[in-house]
């Protein structure tokens, strides 16, 4: 084969491989993009009438848990003006507003026995609409689990502090 024939053979084989690689790229893009787009459309669109509440048990005193939760609320900016109510054994925040969304958080601590306390955590997110503020589900169970994990780490930090 002369050089011209080799060049033509190379171009033909390149043209055959190119559509195949395009097909693989298109398939891979669809496999990745469809789940992302389907999840993205769902975030914040579920209207709820009652705030979600998640429960977790910790082995610590109520006071330590309250301080830990308040610290996490402040650090993660889950509301403004974090207040610990020791009589009600709760931590509450005021709404923090950003664009058409506002969020506030609250937690209650209940002693179960001499060494364990239950924490009930709720993050309330509302979206401004023409009719007023509508409560929406922004956090799913996985995000609450991560939040409880952060609270647990903060509990250990609070327990390690020397008073």
Structural class: alpha+beta
Radius of gyration based on Cα positions: 26 Å
Mean of pLDDT? 84
| Helix-strand string | HEEHEEEEEEH
Number of strands: 8
**Helix residue percentage:** 40-55%
Strand content: 25-35%
End-to-end separation:
89 Å
Largest sheet: 8 strands, antiparallel
Written description of the protein model:
The protein has 163 residues and is α+β, with helices and mostly antiparallel strands. It is 44% helix and 31% strand. The protein contains three helices and eight strands. The chain has helices at 3-40, 62-75, 141-160, and strands at 46-47, 54-58, 80-85, 90-94, 96-98, 101-111, 117-129, 132-137. Strands 1, 2, 3, 4, 5, 6, 7 and 8 form an eight-stranded antiparallel beta sheet that branches. Helix 2 (62-75) crosses helix 3. It is elongated. The relative contact order is 0.15.
Lay out the secondary structure:
Blueprint: H1 3-40, E1 46-47, E2 54-58, H2 62-75, E3 80-85, E4 90-94, E5 96-98, E6 101-111, E7 117-129, E8 132-137, H3 141-160
Antiparallel strand pairs: 1-8, 2-7, 3-4, 4-6, 5-6, 6-7, 7-8
Helix pairs in contact: 2-3
């Amino acid at each position: 084969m002369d050089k011209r024939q080799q060049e033509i053979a190379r171009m033909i084989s390149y043209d055959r491989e190119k559509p195949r690689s395009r097909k693989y790229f298109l398939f891979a893009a669809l496999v990745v993009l469809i789940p992302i787009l389907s999840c993205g459309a769902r975030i914040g669109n579920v209207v709820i009438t009652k705030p979600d509440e998640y429960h977790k048990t910790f082995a610590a005193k109520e006071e330590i848990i309250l301080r830990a939760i308040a610290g996490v609320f402040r650090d993660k900016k889950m509301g403004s003006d974090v207040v610990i109510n020791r009589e009600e054994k709760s931590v509450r925040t005021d709404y923090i507003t950003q664009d058409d969304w506002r969020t506030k958080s609250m937690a209650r601590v209940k002693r179960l026995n001499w060494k364990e306390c239950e924490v009930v955590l709720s993050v309330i997110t509302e979206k401004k609409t023409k009719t007023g503020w509508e409560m929406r589900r922004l956090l799913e169970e996985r995000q609450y689990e991560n939040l409880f994990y952060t609270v647990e780490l903060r509990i250990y930090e609070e327990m390690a502090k020397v008073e």
